[in-house]
């Protein structure tokens, strides 16, 4: 058996990408913008439906940053953010000179906890400032508790910036992730469910917001023959080459989601009879996860070994696995900011591990993964 590296999640081309990229070369649309960008945006709008308006950008981080600007977040404002997430969810708050307020996760979806969220809002209001926005994340493709979280946001009239970077193709009550927030962000980074080598998109509920995002992403150029600016702009637009890759990836998105979900089923079956392993799974039929990454929590008391032991066992066999996202309130760069919650995200981080989940994993890869698990769990 070959010992080549098994990655957590690596790019998986469908084959159609190159025709769009070649077309860009053939027509000399190498510059940013061009027909692939509009085509990719239309493909995404059609896929998400719900009448959303999409602007393709250079990254998911750029989408989150512009999202905060569109929601009016300014220097000194407070923004609530799910603590357990990738740093790119929280960094744009600081780009705006705003203050992050971190909130714990709950155990069903591992996403932002409704109870801790409401506590945080009430306490911030009591301290004199109502938060300007809430950044909620669908971690590993699992929708957050949409009904509960949006009911709270509505009650206090706070906008939600939906970080759907990991959740393209997931849905809740048959409505796609990325269509719930006032603004949402998608990512097409190399490790995501589809990739444009690097890229992202902003999803807006109306055309004006989308146009404003595109205006800001192309250096905020006023309508004039010379370069005229009355606002600060950014260079955040997606290139026509990258969008070509994206168009090809859209052709295989649903097939790749099925393969990711198959990987999840493989693990779910494997761990079904092991007491002490919890796998992240849909809490009810309302939830549909793209299972971007399959992830487990190990109870070291029951298993007798911890998640680091398993990670190292994989590493010895050249298989990548990775601890869950380290909560932002524990990160040196963010630890001085307020945090509301118990120790849910801390315990998930301590005991959680993401397993190889790519849509390109073959039977042979599963066999190697299974061999490591069999030795580890003495099965
Ligand atoms: C990947 C990711 C982002 C950032 O997307 P980029 O395209 O890499 O900038 C933001 N939030 C979460 C949760 C992510 O996983």
UniProtKB/TrEMBL annotation:
Q: What is this protein called?
A: DegT/DnrJ/EryC1/StrS family aminotransferase
Tell me the classification of the organism that encodes this protein.
Bacteria, Pseudomonadati, Bacteroidota, Flavobacteriia, Flavobacteriales
Q: Which Gene3D superfamilies match?
A: Aspartate Aminotransferase, domain 1, Type I PLP-dependent aspartate aminotransferase-like (Major domain)
| Any one GO MF annotation of this record | transaminase activity
Record InterPro entries: DegT/StrS_aminotransferase, PyrdxlP-dep_Trfase, PyrdxlP-dep_Trfase_major, PyrdxlP-dep_Trfase_small
Taxonomic source organism? Flavobacterium ginsenosidimutans
| Protein family | Belongs to the DegT/DnrJ/EryC1 family.
**Which UniProt keywords are listed?**
Aminotransferase, Pyridoxal phosphate, Transferase
Family annotation (Pfam families): DegT_DnrJ_EryC1
